[in-house]
Design brief:
By secondary structure, this protein is of the alpha/beta class. The chain is built from 17 helices and 16 strands. The chain has two domains: 242 residues, Adenosylhomocysteinase-like (Rossmann fold); 158 residues, NAD(P)-binding Rossmann-like Domain (Rossmann fold, 3-Layer(aba) Sandwich), CATH 3.40.50. Helix 8 packs across helix 9. Bound molecules: 1,4-dihydronicotinamide adenine dinucleotide.
């Protein structure tokens, strides 16, 4: 094979195998029934393995996927080229991503490139059930994802992704790679490389690399400028506010909002909250990030102080237990707490439960905790990513760039894996630059080019005062 892929040593999964007994949240694992079980009057039976909530939602899902595609012109161009060149032909890819309309368009692109793709959810609450149905029914893509799936189902889906015997993995949070390096090491030999979508996943991979244990090369898609500068900042900023408003329908103006972390996501969130009229307080541990927040006009406080002040708290740190017992105890009655960082560890939920006499759902995605001091606090979306749980995740226009990076990183891996070390790579600079160029062109924005004189000037040292 042109890309120097080692022959895969595992058996290809048997697509006709019958389901194993399954105790998931909703619905049985579903495989195409044998011909003897099909009747002529049945609706078209999906050809691919799947575990989704309701295939009847597929038409709605297809409409939404097409709507998102209108705002994803860079990815569409890549899809067109992939369909002609088939750079992923013969490769099995297991993608563990948030199953949203934008991801569906990435999945279509990888399939157009020739990949044998399996898509599973990267979070129990982020799946759009209509999108998952359409992926199976309309686009023939194996999909395992159900909104609200329990942990057991979530891990059974990860298992399905690994049983797909991938040559390439696409992760959002490094869960597939985590399991591969833990319980499923026997599958490592067949893998040529992977990609990682988010900050937290890249941190996990770098930790694996630092221990000398990373078993194949991985491209850190998150580190591309055309990813984190737009997706993490503008995407998370807007969609987290969207999640907050859809879950609570509260007025933002005049509220004191505490933003945890002033990184790429936190900056986007803080500036959008400010734009809506909130009084924003930032909590940080990094002096440089805190200084930037101060200079951007935000109040910066230690978390213990901010806890007493805030009406709304949203964490975006990628760190554990940023809000914990000693903070909940001092919060105002009616405080709202949420997270938009990758994992549901930023808020110490067991600590909150221990402080409370009980909790109840008062609206979808809003859990009321009655503390023993008599105050109530409201936890949104089980402390999981608010934007993907209570809203639809990032708008397509930013995911266009993130997923253009994913598609091109997968192609890069297919072509170059045999020459790469087992380490975490940045997206090649020419891919990043090309995506900016294509995105600007798609927006009809033209820019200037350096004149010869300017180029010469910038390369010289002898022209001073
Ligand atoms: P970043 O590294 O740019 O920023 C994180 C910031 O949090 C840093 O400035 C750090 O100093 C600060 N921080 C760490 N521990 C803290 C603590 N205990 N208290 C206060 N501040 C603390 O990371 P980025 O890109 O902003 O990502 C943040 C999280 O959001 C990650 O888990 C990432 O995977 C996730 N993410 C979520 C998205 C979504 O759709 N909701 C989209 C993109 C990223």
């Amino acid at each position: 094979m042109e890309c120097g892929i080692a022959p895969f040593r595992q058996a290809i999964p048997d697509l006709t195998a019958r389901p194993r007994k399954h105790t998931g949240a909703r619905g049985p694992l579903w495989y195409p029934p044998p011909a003897s079980e099909r009747s002529r009057n049945q609706p078209v039976t999906p050809n691919v393995k799947h575990h989704v909530a309701d295939l009847g939602l597929s038409e709605l899902g297809r409409q939404k996927i097409e709507w998102a595609d209108r705002d994803m012109p860079v990815l569409a161009q890549i899809r067109e080229r992939f369909a002609k060149e088939r750079p992923l032909e013969g490769l099995r890819i297991s993608a563990c991503l948030h199953v949203t309309t934008e991801t569906a368009n990435l999945a279509r692109t990888l399939k157009a490139g020739g990949a044998d793709l399996m898509l599973v959810a990267s979070n129990p609450l982020s799946t759009q059930d209509d999108t998952a149905a359409a992926l199976v029914q309309e686009y023939d893509i194996s999909t395992y994802a159900i909104k609200g799936e329990d942990d057991e189902t979530y891990y059974s889906h990860l298992t399905a992704a690994i049983d797909h015997a991938p040559h390439i993995t696409l992760d959002d949070g490094a869960d597939v790679i985590g399991v591969l390096h833990g319980d499923r090491r026997e599958m490592l030999d067949g893998i040529i490389g992977g990609t990682e979508e988010t900050t937290t996943g890249v941190i996990r991979l770098k930790a694996l690399e630092a221990e000398g244990k990373l078993a194949f090369p991985v491209v850190a898609v998150n580190d591309a400028n055309t990813k984190h500068m737009f997706d993490n900042r503008y995407g998370t900023g807007q969609s987290t506010l969207d999640g907050l408003m859809r879950a609570t329908n509260i007025l933002i103006a005049g509220r004191k909002c505490v933003v945890g972390g002033y990184g790429w996501c936190g900056r986007g969130l803080a500036s959008r909250l400010k734009g809506m009229g909130a009084h924003v307080i930032v909590i940080e541990v990094d002096p440089l990030a805190a200084l930037e927040a101060v200079m951007d006009g935000f109040e910066v406080l230690p978390v213990a102080e901010a806890a007493k002040e805030g009406d709304i708290f949203i964490t975006a740190t990628g760190n554990i237990h940023v809000l914990r017992r000693e903070h909940f105890e001092h919060m105002k009655d009616g405080a709202i707490i949420a997270n938009t960082g990758h994992f549901n560890v930023e808020i110490d939920i067991p600590g909150l439960e221990e402080l409370s006499d009980g909790s109840r759902e008062v609206r979808p995605f809003v859990q009321e905790y009655v503390l023993r001091n008599g105050r109530k606090v409201y936890l949104l979306a089980e402390g999981r990513l608010l934007n993907l749980s209570a809203a639809e995740g990032h708008p397509a226009a930013v995911m266009d760039m993130s997923f253009a990076n994913q598609a091109l990183a997968a192609e890069y891996m297919a072509k170059n894996a045999s020459t790469l070390e087992n380490t975490v790579y940045s997206v090649p600079a020419d891919i990043d630059a090309e995506i900016s160029r294509l995105k600007l062109a798609s927006m009809g924005v033209e820019i200037d080019a350096l004149t010869d004189e300017q180029q010469k000037y910038l390369a010289s040292w002898d022209q001073g005062t």
